[in-house]
Write a structure and sequence with these properties.
The protein is of the alpha/beta class. The protein has helices at 24-37, 68-75, 79-92, 94-102, 118-121, 125-135, 154-171, 195-199, 205-212, 215-218, 221-234, 247-261, 267-278, 290-311; strands at 11-17, 42-46, 58-61, 108-112, 138-147, 175-180, 239-241. The relative contact order is 0.14.
Length: 312
Amino acid sequence: MSEGSKGNSLAFGQVVIGPPGSGKTTYCHGMQEFMGRIGRKVAVVNLDPANEGMPYPCAVDISELITLPDVMESLKLGPNGGLIYCMEYLEANLDWLQEKLAAFRGHYYLFDCPGQVELYTHHSALKNVFAQMAKWNFRLAAVHLVDSHYCTDPGKFISVLCTSLSTMLHVELPHVNVLSKMDLIEQYGKLAFNLDYYTEVLDLSYLVDHLASDPFFRNYRRLNAKLVEVIEDYSLVSFVPLNVQDKESMRQVMQAVDKANGYSFGDQEHRSLEALMSAAVGADFHFTSTLAVQEKYVQSRDKTMEEEVMDM
């Protein structure tokens, strides 16, 4: 099934969400370029009223309707309260959004959303906007970006799992969790387990045991065990690793999202994708796959063990 361009035809897209600094705008820019190379028409929609200087060509920009600085100045609100007001204002002016989106019917949509976590775990404005878009025949999937450096800290990773689960249950969209910035993960230290452990969210009891070795977290072992129990009982959270500069990584994320929202590309796009994947690496892509990252960890760990043995 492909996107139509007229009438009540289906429109497909991604709602890109996640905490501040997780790489949402960079992801939208990279995915727009990647999809453009395989012949998919993409329209990026900026729904973040605090987003300035976007690196991508913006099809629809919420700043034409409302901006965060104006709200903060006129209503004397802080950034968090101002963002909530902006989202409620967008919800109250859905006719504006519908008219803007109609001009790009037949495109694949990327919605660059604000970074305030409460908007996806507690507040209902954006959730209602997405629900209304479903009535307009939009088939959306939520792409929840999480900075991969949280994997290097077991306590923070448990927090990320809880946030991801809460977001999945609240937003009520087909959901793909993504570990972003995989090319930078080495800068934050070594992983306690192999990368697969974090992406597949395997037996988390090992994570609790690892936390128990820390004097600070030892007192919270029961709390962490209960949080892990909730995550495992739902059994919903898993992650796709992403390096925006790696086209194989981008392909895997794109296909996971296409599967989630029901988009199925045509023969021409499939041929373009095969040609892109078999082409030599250009200036815009650097083949640093997540597998290579994991291998570096293994090699580094083996080398450290050898050095320790030699010192004994």
